[in-house]
Amino acid sequence: MHTLNRAQWQHSHNFLGDQATAEKNTRRVILLTSAMMVVEVVAGLHLHSMALFADGCHMSTHVAAFLITAWAYVVTRKNAGNRLYSFGAGKVGVLGAYTSAIILAGIALFMLVESVKRLF
Asked: Is 96 exposed, middle or buried (0-12, 13-18, 19+ CB in 10 A)?
């Protein structure tokens, strides 16, 4: 019969490996998207362009989704060796994507209801 001690059967719970480059690139995308969002909102207000203003507001949803992604990277990195995450901390990214999708679905539903109200 094989007997293993505790040190022999334990393994790392960091199944994703190093995500430093992806995390850094996500921060860059957040900065670029935020800058363009601000430019569009300010230009839309200054030029009285509803299209620019609306697109700037639309970009805010992208910034929010990217912020959720950045948060997931940070939580995953900080908890990579935490044994409480028995299936690895990478599932935090999946939960972040799920949360982002739910928020965007809520916004889409709000837009649908508002559009129907304005139609009538």
From this structure: buried
Q: Which residues contact 20 (CB under 8 A, 6 or more apart)?
A: 77
| 23 within a domain of the structure (yes/no) | yes
Is 59 a domain residue? yes
Q: Which two tokens stand for residue 77?
A: 């990195």
Report which DSSP code applies to 83.
T
Dist. CA 19–CA 66, nearest whole Å: 15
Domain-located, residue 52: yes
Determine the average pLDDT of the residues in 87-113. 81
pLDDT band at 76 (very low <50, low <70, confident <90, very high): confident
